[in-house]
Specification:
6% of the residues lie in helices and 57% in strands. The chain is mainly beta. The strands form 9 sheets. It has a 22-stranded antiparallel barrel. It is globular, with a radius of gyration of 26 Å.
C-alpha cells in the first residue's frame, strides 16, 4: 500500500504538469535573455529575494526546497499567524492545543505538545535569524514583515539551533532611507478589527528608523453558556521599532525591539463520540451538539506576552564580511482550560488545567564569509544559545464516579501541580564551502558540530487528595517527587549538494542533508523514576533532488522536489489514556518519501495562476509502543496527510487610468490524516476557500476590498485528545468576512 500511495503521487504530479501545459505551447528551456521587465517592458513574474543561505539571493537560485511569501501578500491576505502560512506550503500541516502549544509538522516531522520544560520543537521558528525556542508562549503575531521563508527538511548546517524537520524564517520589514508610511483597517463579523500601520524614514544622515504597530480583536467563535464567557476570541496588540545605522563605509548596525500582548478566553473543547473505539459514554451524552457551544463550569483564559531585542553588526573587511548577531527573546504564557469541555456529570471527571510558562533565550552568533563573487566561496561561524524555561502545570479535578479511596474515582479527584525548570546551553561550530567546478556546476559541502547540555529541576506536589479519606492524587501523579538531572548530547550533521544550471533560468540540484534534535525529559510523570528517565535525541538524513525553472521569458515558474528521509530514534508523543499523561518515546526508525511542487503562471498581464502541493508516503519502521507493547511498524506517521494542495488566482486589471479591479481566490485541501501513531483516530479530508474582491488606485496608494475566509464554513478540527471512547476536539475558525481599506503615503 505504501508503494501505491507514492505511485499515485507521481501520477498526480504528472497530471498537474500536463494541466499547466494547457495554458502554454509545448515547453522549452527559457531564453537566456535576462533583461528585467522594467528595462524591456516584457511581462514576467515577480522575483522574491530571500536569505535562506545567510546571503541575499533570488529564491529561484537557492538549491533548497523553500517557499517564500512576500510582505505585500501577507498584508493583502491578512495573514497574522502560522496556521495560515501552512495552507500555502507543501507538506506543511498546523494544529493547536492552546495558545502555548501550536503543533507544526513538515514532511511528516513535528512535535505534538511541548509539555516538558526541556522539550524542543522539530520545526524551528526564527525571527530575523533568532531562534524562538517556545513556539507558543514566545512567538509574536505576524505583522509588518518583509517576507516569510519556509524551508523543508533538515537544516543542520547554517541555521542556529540545529533543526531536524524544517525552519520558518520571519523577516521583518527594514527601515528605509526615504520617508514612507502606510496602514490598513479591516472590520468583519464577530466584531473583528484588524489594524496595522508603519512609518519609516531617515532620522539623521546615517540613521533610519521604522515603527510598526498592530492590533487585532474579535469576539469568540464559541460561547460558554454556563458562565457566559466568550471562547476562541482574540485581543492582540504588538509593536516593533527598528533602527539602521551606517556607522562607517564598512560597518552597518541594525537594532530591532519588539513587544506583543495577547489576551483571550482560550480554547473551547467539545467531545465527539468515536464509534470505532468502545468507551464509557460519559462525556458525549447530554452536551450540546453544536461544537461552538461550551458547558464548562469554569472561567478560562489564554494570555501571552512576548518581547525581544536583536542587534546585528556587519563589517566589510575587503574580500570577507563579518557578521555578529546578539539577541534576547522573552515569552510568558498563562492559560486555564477544562480538558473535556464539560462539567461532571456528564464527564467522567471535571478536570481543569492551569498552566504557566516563562521562556528566556539569549543568542550569540559570529559568522565570517568570503566574497560571493569568487569560484571558491565559504562561510564559517560559531553559535551559542542559552535557554531558560519555567513551566508550571496544575490539575484540579473532581469526579462524580462512585467508589471509595483507592478506586477510579479517587484517582480522578483532587489537586496537584508540576513545576519544571530547564536550563539549556547549546554550542555549535559550522561551515560551508562552495566551488564552481565549471561555470554551470557547483559543489557545496558543509557541516555543523552541535553540543547540547540540559539541566532539569522538576517537582511534583500534591495540593489536595480530594474527598475526605482519599489516598490518590489526580492521575497521572502517584507520589510527590523532587528530581534534578543533567545530560549532554553531541552530534555532527553534514551536508553535500551538487547544483547544475543548464541555462540562466533553470537550476537542477541533488543534495544530502542531516539534522538533529536534542533529548530531554517528560513534563508530567507518575513518579520520580519516570521523571528522571530521559528520552534520546532524534536525527534525520534526507536525500533530495529538485528542479527550479522559469519558462517563456519568466512567465511560467515550476519548482519541483523529490526526497527520501530516513529517521533514527524519532521522538513520538504518545497519549497514555490510562494514566492520563503524554509520554515522549523514541519510536525506533521512520521512512518518509515525497514529491512537492510549486507552480506559478502569468498568462496575461492582469491574471496570475498558482498551485502548490505534496504527495507523501510515510511509515514507522520497527516501532513497538513502549506503553502497551503494540507493534506500530508499517503505520503511517501521525499528523501527515498523503496529499495536500492549494490552487488559486490573483487578478489586477486596469479599469481606468486611475483605477484597478483586484480579486483573489484560493482553495487549500488537506487529505485524511491520523492523529496518532496507532492510526486509529483520524481527521477526514477538508478544504478551505478564501477570497477577496475590490478596487485599488492604479498607483497603489489605496485599496478597498471585501474579503472572506473559510467561505464555505467548513467544520474541521485542529486538535483532538482521545479519551474513554470519545475525541475531545478543538475546531478551526468558522466562516469570517468583512471589508478592508488600506492606504500608503
Amino acid at each position: 500500500m505504501a508503494q501505491t500511495r507514492l505511485t499515485k503521487g507521481v501520477l498526480y504530479s504528472a497530471v498537474a504538469s500536463a494541466a499547466i501545459g494547457m495554458f502554454m505551447p509545448a515547453a522549452s528551456w527559457a531564453q537566456e535573455d535576462t533583461t528585467t521587465a522594467s528595462e524591456s517592458g516584457q511581462l514576467m513574474l515577480d522575483e522574491l529575494v530571500i536569505t535562506a543561505r545567510k546571503r541575499e539571493e533570488s529564491l529561484q537560485d537557492v538549491p533548497i526546497a523553500v517557499t517564500g511569501i512576500g510582505g505585500d501578500q501577507l498584508r493583502d491576505e491578512q495573514i497574522t499567524d502560522l496556521s495560515e502560512i501552512a495552507l500555502q506550503v507543501p507538506s506543511f500541516t498546523f494544529q493547536s492545543q492552546n495558545s502555548m502549544e501550536s503543533e507544526m509538522f513538515i514532511r511528516g516531522v513535528g512535535s505534538v505538545r511541548l509539555n516538558g520544560a526541556t522539550a524542543d520543537p522539530s520545526i524551528g521558528t526564527f525571527l530575523n535569524e533568532v531562534y524562538v525556542g517556545r513556539r507558543g508562549s514566545a512567538t509574536p503575531p505576524i505583522f509588518d514583515l518583509s517576507r516569510v521563508e519556509v524551508l523543508r527538511g533538515p537544516q543542520g548546517t547554517l541555521f542556529g539551533k540545529n533543526i531536524v524537520g524544517g525552519a520558518i524564517n520571519l523577516i521583518t520589514a527594514a527601515p528605509q532611507d526615504e520617508f514612507d508610511a502606510g496602514g490598513s483597517v479591516s472590520i468583519g463579523n464577530y466584531s473583528s478589527v484588524l489594524a496595522e500601520g508603519f512609518v519609516t524614514g531617515p532620522v539623521t544622515d546615517t540613521v533610519s528608523a521604522r515603527l510598526a504597530l498592530f492590533r487585532e480583536t474579535h469576539d469568540g467563535y464559541a460561547k460558554n453558556i454556563v458562565t457566559g464567557q466568550d471562547l476562541e476570541d482574540k485581543d492582540s496588540t504588538a509593536g516593533r521599532l527598528s533602527l539602521n545605522w551606517d556607522a562607517s563605509d564598512t560597518v552597518f548596525v541594525s537594532v530591532v525591539a519588539d513587544y506583543s500582548q495577547d489576551r483571550a478566553g482560550g480554547p473551547s473543547r467539545h467531545a465527539v463520540d468515536y464509534p470505532k473505539t468502545p468507551g464509557f459514554g460519559f462525556i458525549t451524552p447530554n452536551i450540546p451538539e453544536d461544537p461552538r457551544v461550551n458547558v464548562s463550569p469554569y472561567d478560562q483564559y489564554a494570555d501571552r506576552d512576548t518581547a525581544g531585542l536583536t542587534g546585528r553588526v556587519e563589517w566589510d573587511i575587503g574580500e570577507m564580511s563579518l557578521v555578529y548577531l546578539a539577541a534576547y527573546r522573552y515569552g510568558q504564557g498563562d492559560g486555564r482550560w477544562t480538558q473535556a469541555g464539560a462539567a461532571s456529570p456528564p464527564s467522567i471527571t471535571d478536570s481543569t488545567l492551569t498552566q504557566h510558562e516563562l521562556y528566556q533565550g539569549v543568542t550569540q552568533e559570529l559568522r565570517l564569509a568570503s566574497s560571493q563573487d569568487n569560484a571558491f566561496r565559504w562561510v564559517a561561524g560559531l553559535y551559542y544559545l542559552d535557554e531558560n524555561v519555567k513551566r508550571v502545570s496544575r490539575n484540579t479535578a473532581t469526579s462524580f464516579l462512585p467508589g471509595g479511596p483507592g478506586g477510579t474515582r479517587d484517582s480522578l479527584d483532587g489537586d496537584n501541580i508540576y513545576l519544571g525548570y530547564s536550563d539549556t546551553a547549546s554550542y555549535a561550530a559550522f561551515g560551508e564551502v562552495e566551488y564552481d567546478i565549471t561555470p554551470d556546476v557547483t559543489l557545496a559541502i558543509g557541516g555543523r558540530f552541535t553540543h547540547d547540555k540540559k539541566d532539569l529541576d522538576t517537582r511534583a506536589v500534591i495540593l489536595d487528595y480530594g474527598l475526605p479519606g482519599d489516598i490518590l492524587s489526580p492521575a497521572p501523579l502517584q507520589e510527590e517527587y523532587d528530581v534534578v538531572q543533567s545530560e549532554e548530547w553531541s552530534e555532527f550533521t553534514p551536508k553535500v549538494a551538487v547544483n547544475w544550471t543548464p541555462t540562466e533560468d533553470a537550476l537542477i540540484y541533488a543534495s544530502y542533508a542531516s539534522g538533529y534534535k536534542g533529548g530531554g525529559w517528560q513534563g508530567a510523570t507518575a513518579n520520580a523514576v519516570a521523571a528522571a528517565t530521559p528520552y534520546d535525541p532524534e536525527s534525520a538524513s534526507t536525500y533530495e533532488i529538485g528542479l527550479k525553472a522559469e519558462w517563456f521569458n519568466n512567465r511560467l515558474r515550476t519548482n519541483l522536489a523529490a526526497f527520501y528521509t530516513d529517521f533514527t530514534d524519532l521522538q513520538v508523543e504518545l497519549l497514555d489514556d490510562v494514566n492520563l499523561t503524554l509520554v515522549v518515546a523514541n519510536a525506533a526508525d521512520a521512512a518518509i518519501k515525497g514529491v512537492e511542487y510549486e507552480v506559478r503562471v502569468l498568462p496575461t498581464e492582469w491574471l496570475t495562476l498558482f498551485a502548490a502541493g505534496s504527495f507523501l508516503d510515510t511509515e514507522y519502521k520497527d516501532y513497538i509502543d513502549p506503553l502497551r507493547g503494540i507493534d506500530y511498524s508499517g503505520n503511517q506517521l501521525q499528523r501527515t496527510p498523503d496529499f495536500q494542495y492549494t490552487i488559486g488566482a490573483d487578478i489586477d486589471h486596469r479599469l481606468t487610468d486611475n483605477l484597478n479591479f483586484i480579486a483573489a481566490l484560493n482553495y487549500s485541501y488537506q487529505d485524511q490524516m491520523f492523529w496518532g501513531p496507532d492510526n486509529h483516530n483520524e481527521e477526514p479530508g477538508y478544504g478551505l476557500l478564501n477570497g477577496r474582491i475590490g478596487i485599488a488606485a492604479a498607483d497603489g496608494r489605496w485599496t478597498a476590498t471585501i474579503w472572506g475566509k473559510n467561505i464555505s464554513d467548513e467544520l474541521y478540527r485542529v486538535s483532538i485528545i482521545p479519551f474513554a471512547g470519545d475525541e475531545v476536539s478543538l475546531y478551526g475558525a468558522p466562516e469570517t468576512y468583512g471589508v478592508r481599506f488600506s492606504a500608503r503615503y
